[in-house]
Design a protein that fits this description.
The chain is built from 19 helices and 8 strands. It is mainly alpha-helical. It has 3 domains: 135 residues, Fumarase C, Chain B, domain 1, CATH 1.10.275.10; 217 residues, Fumarase/aspartase (Central domain) (Fumarase C, Chain A, domain 2); 56 residues, Fumarase/aspartase (C-terminal domain) (Ribonucleotide Reductase Protein R1, domain 1), CATH 1.10.40. The strands form 4 sheets. It has a two-stranded antiparallel ribbon. A hairpin with a 2-residue loop joins strand 3 and strand 4. Helix 2 packs across helix 6, helix 11 packs antiparallel against helix 12 and helix 11 runs parallel beside helix 13. The chain is elongated and about 100 Å long. 44% of the residues are buried. Pfam families: FumaraseC_C, Lyase_1. This is Aspartate ammonia-lyase. It comes from Humibacter ginsenosidimutans. GO terms for molecular function: aspartate ammonia-lyase activity. Keywords: Lyase.
Length: 494
């Protein structure tokens, strides 16, 4: 009968609640009850309550609010009770009593503990509003009234989908803002010439602006792909109750509940055409997880590039300067590390792992219900939250403050043999290869070598090696002229 460890009443007062397993002492000031008490004892796993995801608590409140309004509408609940339950749900949506959602995010029972935590908090607050004592369930009962026409098996996955839908809006906003930040840098650096690289080896020239514009394009593509996942979350099984047959629910309930839920959430939710399939299948969660992983992986690749481009500052590439955010070493004075891209990389690693967990959990469900939706919910809510915050910190604390190391870039381009590729259509491959070899051995300017060889006047060389032409903004390719060798052979190339 003891209360769960760590949950003694602050006032020293307790109330007794009873379930099918017996009696439990509940702190008198707690809004949760006996079912939550058992969950606290059974699942001391994550040490993270479901309230860490406030949007999820809001989503649970929205589901319960839609349910009670539907029950009032079809005459399945006493209107007075219903209005008190409705008011309690609205208070949750105002942010009140979120601290009473105490069950661990990882739990057995397919989310039953979470559902009962919500039922008990709402019931006890409704009792207070009606002038009764907490735990006086003869007046308003957590199951008979708050959970009327429902089961964990339809309310829990519906709440998860609503929470993800609401969080997706926020993620998309941040992802677009990050895209715009990269795009602005693309404009800022549009005339800054640099050496492109393939397989980490020098390739042909490009502009730093083109590189950053490419980053922006990548993020824009992921924005569109994530938007496409909204439909995955719009199909819900509310009204399915236990396994999809709708047992204990009035036939009119499902349509009414979905209607009210759309009004409350502002989403475009619809009832699944096959409620039995929808109740047992976690495919939508797996697909959504895959979309988050794709976005995280591509963002991580960009951060890898940023760390490489900013490496040094003296012994690395040193092409760009990331904003210094904190001292980088406890032993090396003056060292500054790329901590913002590094933390985004770690977020991506976590999302990749989370996707593997979601995939395993989706596969692991049996028959009419997937019992592993709590771990799916935990990792999806974590992934989308972390990805949003990663986009925010990358934009504000890194991308907006990036500068180009123009002097170093000019030096690297001037001595880089890759620029000779732009001259190949005009002087031929063999002559270009010979000049490239000389440039590498002597570390001299390609332009100077071309002029000294008498292959082209300086003004023509400089025009062909202008940033616009080297980066492909202006087309420079023409037919390769036939140049006689010193023996007068017109078919030979210099």
């Amino acid at each position: 009968m003891s209360p769960p460890q760590g949950w003694e009443a602050a006032s020293g007062d307790y109330r007794t609640e009873t379930d099918s397993l017996g009696e439990r002492r509940i702190p008198a000031d707690a809004y949760w009850g006996v079912h939550t008490s058992r969950a606290l004892e059974n699942f001391p796993i994550a040490h993270r309550p479901i309230s860490v995801y406030s949007t999820f608590i809001d989503a649970l409140a929205m589901v319960k609010l839609a349910a009670v309004r539907a029950n009032i509408e079809i005459g399945a609940i006493d209107p007075h009770k219903g209005r008190l339950i409705e008011q309690a749900c609205l208070e949750l949506l105002e942010g009140r009593l979120h601290d009473q959602f105490v069950v661990g995010i990882i739990q057995g029972g397919a989310g039953t503990s979470t559902n009962m935590n919500a039922n008990e908090v709402i019931a006890n607050r409704a009792l207070e509003l009606g002038g009764w004592q907490k735990g006086d369930y003869a007046h308003i009962h957590p199951i008979d009234d708050v959970n009327r026409s429902q089961s964990t098996n339809d309310t829990y996955p519906t709440a998860v989908k609503i929470a993800l839908s609401l969080l997706l809006r926020s993620l998309l906003d941040e992802l677009w803002a990050l895209r715009e930040s990269f795009s602005r840098k693309g404009v800022e650096f549009k005339n800054v010439l640099k050496v492109g690289r393939t397989q980490l080896q020098d390739a042909v020239p490009m502009t730093l602006g083109q590189e950053f514009h490419g980053f922006a394009t990548t993020l824009g593509e992921d924005y569109e792909r994530l938007k496409e996942t909204i439909w995955l979350l719009s199909e819900i099984n509310l009204g399915a109750t236990a396994i999809g047959t709708g047992i204990t629910a009035d036939p009119r309930y499902a349509a009414s509940a979905v209607h009210h839920l759309n009004l409350i959430t502002g989403l475009d939710l619809e009832s699944a055409p096959d409620l039995i399939e929808s109740t047992s299948d976690a495919g939508a969660f797996m697909s959504f997880s895959g979309a988050l992983k794709r976005s995280a992986v591509k963002l991580s690749k960009i951060c890898n590039d940023l760390r490489l481009l900013s490496s040094g500052p003296q012994a690395g590439l040193g092409e760009i300067n990331l904003p210094p955010r904190q001292a980088g070493s406890s032993i090396m004075p003056g060292k500054v590390n790329p901590v913002i891209p590094e933390v985004v990389n770690q977020v991506a690693f976590s999302i990749i792992g989370a996707d593997a967990t979601v995939t395993a959990a989706a596969e692991g469900g049996q028959l009419q219900l997937n019992a592993f939706e709590p771990v799916i919910a935990n990792f999806l809510l974590q992934s989308i939250t972390w990805l949003r915050q990663a986009c925010l910190t990358l934009r504000v604390n890194c991308i907006d403050g990036i500068t180009a190391n123009t002097e170093r870039l000019e030096t690297m381009v001037g001595s880089n043999v890759g620029v000779i590729t732009a001259l190949t259509p005009h002087i031929g491959y063999a002559a270009s290869a010979a000049l490239a070899k000389t440039a590498l051995l002597t570390n001299r300017s390609v332009a100077d070598l071309v002029v000294e060889a008498g292959l082209m006047p300086r003004d023509r060389v400089m025009k062909l090696l202008s940033p616009a032409r080297l980066s492909g903004i202006e087309t420079i390719t023409t037919s390769i002229p036939v140049v006689p060798d010193h023996h007068g052979n017109p078919d030979a190339r210099l």
